[in-house]
Amino acid sequence: MLSNSAGDVPTLRDCLRAAKAVSASPNSKRVMATVRPRAVGGVVRDRSPLALILYVAALDRRLVWQGIDGFALLEPPPVRPGRTRWWGARHWLLNLADRHWPATMMLAPSLLAFVVALAMTPFPALRLTAVLIAAAPLLWITFLMTGGLVRQVFVRDSSHSDAVALRLLSGENWTMSLFHQDNHQRDDELFDRVRARLLELISRDVRSFGDESGLTFQEAHITGRLVCLHDGVTSDRARSRLAERHPDTTWIEGARFSVSDFPTRRGDAEKGPLRLLSFGRFYVLCVGAVVLILALMLYWGELSACAQRTCAAPVDSYGDAVIWMAYRLVYQEPPGLTAVSANATAWGWMMGLLLPMTAAVVLVASVRKAGQLRRVAVRYNGGSAKARLLVVAVTEVECSAIIDVFEAYTNRTAEVDYELSVPVFRLGPVSDVEVFLVQAGDAGSVDVAAVPRVAGDAIRDLKPSCAVITGICYGLKPKEQDFRQILVSSRIRDLDHAKMLQSGDMIVSQDRGEVVSPSPRLLQAAKTAKRQWERENNVPVHFGQMLSWNKLVNAELVVSDLRERYPDAIGGDMEGTGFYAAVRWAGIEGILIKAISDFGQEKDDSHQRPAAVNAARYVLHLVKVGALTNVGGRRDAGPTGRG
């Protein structure tokens, strides 16, 4: 086999050399324990040797390969969309052995010994040798079962809650379990290749799933996440570099893994099953192997016993021996079968003990796992974002203020997604809420790039739980209000729809527009968060009716007329009605939160930036305190049938 170290697909020889490089790294023990953790029983490893893991991953393109001195290993969710790619029988067998290494370690020696012993059965001179060969795997399985049970009952692993949380996260996210780079100047390059490869793998899986299912994913985008295992990084320098580059990915203080967000990905992998009783299933598998081996030994004993005397209901085949063992497992005598050998009583007694032992193991495993999941729920509350928030802005001042406020808080750069119907800024997750920002191209509500069209397109693509329009507005109560104070709509009155009448020599306008109310839950959340906000920031928040008019107000007479006609109004803007039309049509919850930059007369720009910042900070405050986490329902993008 020719070596291809510089290529993108390494050979088995390359993988052997790469495994040696990992073993020689400063953190090799910790890395090996991460990539090859102990199985549920704790006696054997959960994965195959590292060289085999790397080789199988390379065939499946999950190994991001720069060479012997630089590579990263990606692990998929347990359930992936699309059929697993076929690379040949050898790859299938190697992958099966790797993914089920504990079963391989238990069954492969037992099966080999079983076949050899069975082949010796016709030769009486080899019976003793066959018994010894069959007894060896029985002792091995007994060791696995006993060792696993002892660890389950008596050994408590303080880090196991992290492992359970990792399985919860890995059930729906890809995992980077190994990161090795000898040249520190190429750390960023390798991680960039990890990002690119991850998006490639997800796209491949989703395309395969669509082809098999007759589905097409029409611009279905969600936030992608990669779970990065800190202990899988072979050098402290590389781990520090990744943490420096992605400071927002820390899952929880002191945790040994982080969650790195990616811009977009098409479709979504199904959530994989969490193995709640993994040790219990492993134990049952061992019991099955014990039954088969004991049945073989019983069969040999019955052949010898019945050769010396006449047996009325002989156990004269291996199938009869298995049936006899199965009945004895539940304390029953099989009809038409009578075991007469000297060892039959001992085998039957052993089978009678297996049932209560198995029940005890399953009970212990269930109790332990339930406790672990409870600890995970307390320590790792959230797992992935529960809600999505779409923030809508119009002017450059408003948009830049929102981006600056969220970037300062998350310590990450907002990423722009141009693949959606409209460009969207991804501001990152905050308190279990994924935050997105869209900027309308025109002020008001009637132009082609105004709020209704832009917000509607963004809502359709992102499927947010709720939406907020924020930015600047004018106030209508200068005696009670001041510049930069925050206004939240409890109602919005549409001033554009009106009936024009003539009364004598005068034109009279009669309102015909709606008076709409925001989401009750969002309004209540904003009111509840007001007290803490005002105590910490000394910026008042006013709630009341907002006027929405597709006209820029900058005249004292107009403002006086508005105050006279709408004495309850606290302020006004140009986009409120259009925003509410978009969220109502989409069936999601929405609210208007803006700050005063002027009072509808003698306008200047001096207060626009501070007002926009205050409004953005109040939206961030609502997200931080969790006021928006459980508002609305997650509206995941999904496929549509291809007709």
Feature tags:
adenosylhomocysteine nucleosidase activity, Nucleoside_phosphorylase_d, elongated, 643 residues, single chain, transmembrane, membrane, five-stranded mixed β-sheet, alpha/beta, methylthioadenosine nucleosidase activity, 47% helix, 19% strand
Describe this structure in words.
The chain contains 18 helices and 19 strands. With 643 residues, it is an alpha/beta fold. The protein has 3 domains: 12-79 and 171-266, no CATH class; 102-164 and 275-384, no CATH class; 387-636, Rossmann fold (3-Layer(aba) Sandwich). A 5-stranded mixed beta sheet has the order 1-2-3-5-6, sandwiched between helices. Strands 11-17-16-12-18 form a 5-stranded mixed beta barrel, surrounded by 4 helices. A two-stranded antiparallel ribbon has the order 4-19. β1 and β2 (70-75) form a beta hairpin. α13 crosses α18. It starts with 11 loop residues before the first helix and ends with a strand. Mean pLDDT is 77; it is low at 1-7, 158-165, 219-223, 248-254, 264-277, 375-384 and 634-643.
Radius of gyration from the alpha-carbon trace, in angstroms:
34 Å
- The end-to-end span amounts to 48 Å
Structural class, judged by helices and strands?
A: alpha/beta
CATH-assigned fold name of the largest domain? Rossmann fold
So what's the oligomer here?
single chain
**Which architecture of the largest domain does the CATH hierarchy give at level 2?**
3-Layer(aba) Sandwich
Overall number of structural domains: 3
Number of strands: 19
CATH class of the largest domain: Alpha Beta
Beta-strand fraction estimate:
15-25%
- Please list the strands of the largest sheet in the order they lie side by side: 1-2-3-5-6
